[in-house]
Design brief:
Number of helices: 2
Number of strands: 7
Helix content: 25-40%
Distance between the termini: 31 Å
Low-confidence stretches: none
CATH architecture: Roll
Number of domains: 1
Strand order of the largest sheet: 1-2-7-6-3-4-5
Structural class: alpha+beta
Shape: globular
Order of helices and strands: EEHHEEEEE
Largest sheet: 7 strands, mixed
Length: about 120
């Protein structure tokens, strides 16, 4: 089994998508599939689960179509990394946060959700 690239060295190649994939009822792009294959599947699956099932997000999406999902990595003084998933309306109004006590993620990410499609910010 190939070791995942947690630094996502090829991330900048995704400036659009050639294919859409169905994942837990949403469409995802080539870029999202790439990060999932390289160690960030936990982040994507958590984001999709929140989009699908969280009451406040579902209510927001009845009248709006756009969300920003950010993965923020925090390092403590001992070298351990924690992370936060922050979902906003795109205008810095936080709709949901989730904290991870430990992560091996190397790169902060920003995803966009628009009209049923989850994508990397540079695929928008």
């Amino acid at each position: 089994m190939e070791k995942p690239d947690l630094q996502l060295k090829d991330l900048n190649q995704f400036t659009g998508t050639d294919h859409y994939y169905r994942y837990m009822g949403l469409l995802i792009t080539d870029g999202i599939a790439y990060i999932m294959k390289n160690g960030y599947g936990w982040f994507v699956s958590d984001a999709v689960a929140v989009i699908i099932a969280h009451k406040k997000i579902r209510e927001y999406l009845r009248e709006n179509t756009f969300l920003t999902i950010k993965l923020k990595i925090n390092k403590d003084k001992d070298g351990y990394k924690t992370a936060d998933m922050i979902i906003t309306d795109g205008n810095e109004t936080t709709l949901y946060t989730q904290h991870y006590d430990l992560t091996d993620a190397e790169r902060e990410l920003t995803l966009f959700y628009d009209n049923g499609v989850l994508m990397l910010s540079n695929e928008y």
